[in-house]
Please model this.
Amino acid sequence: MMARLKRRAWLSAGNLALGILLLWAGWHLFDWAVLQAVFLPDASACHALEGAGACWGVVAEKYRVIFFGRYPLEEQWRPLLAIFVMLGLLGASAIRRRRGRRLALLWASGLTVFLLLLKGGLFGLANVDTPRWGGLPLTLMLTVFGLGGAFPLAVLLALGRVGRWAALRALCTVFIEIVRGVPLVAVLFMAAFLFPLLMPKGWDIPSLLRVLVGIILFAGAYMAEVIRGGLLAVPKGQAEAAQSLGLSYWHVQLSVILPQALRKVLPALMNSAIALFKDTSLVIIVGLFELTGALGLAVDGDPKWRAFALDGYLFIAIIYWIGCFAMSRYSRALERTT
Model:
């Protein structure tokens, strides 16, 4: 009894000490980030801080480049509207009563509007080539289109790897192991620079499209193994019971086994989605200026603000955290309702 009371006392003392430490750290962070910070685009005021506070003025000064990259200044209302369209689609997907055919139709029309706003060329909108796309719209596009293409590919690869046909199993296994054994940086380099060398003369596929295909293949290989784990976790009795009712092999897999498998691996799938959202920052190495790359584009060429790049990257980190946290909470909601 005395030993248990001593353990509780030590735990209480530890919790109290940890709470005090968190309060101390939280206060100093709040003081640095808010009370002592400069929010106006005043470089001289930021230099006068000498590290005592954050310089959010770099965001106030460079927000157009950060959010829209090299998109033409006079047309930046279009990527801004495209951001709201994409966020609206994501928000609609979180509403349970909107799932089904209406949601699919909403996504099809919304993505068409999103691409039309960015590309232009119709309805009086000026044409903007894909190399000038950047910032937050490019990050959202790579994430959403990457996941949209990777998920069905992952399902097909996983079903093929656990299927009956040996040739198909071998083909899916080879593809998955090769892609998973190569870092994403190498995949992006091959998509951006090596693939054009293999194309017939006169063929010109935009770099953004090649990079997107590389992201889809890479994410699809990783998600396929997650889904395969879910397929193997479903009891064999489920398939045997469905087959006893006269269902075909593929009908059993798609209608009975796959839904249960996806429900089991939902947290792992969302983890892959979050990882892909963050990995989109790697496209800077092939000359695409998404959110993090656009910040470097904004401050690297301006000596007045170059010293405050870290503050800008903290702002970018907050955006990524908000996106990742929202995806995590959406995953928890799906777990409760499926």
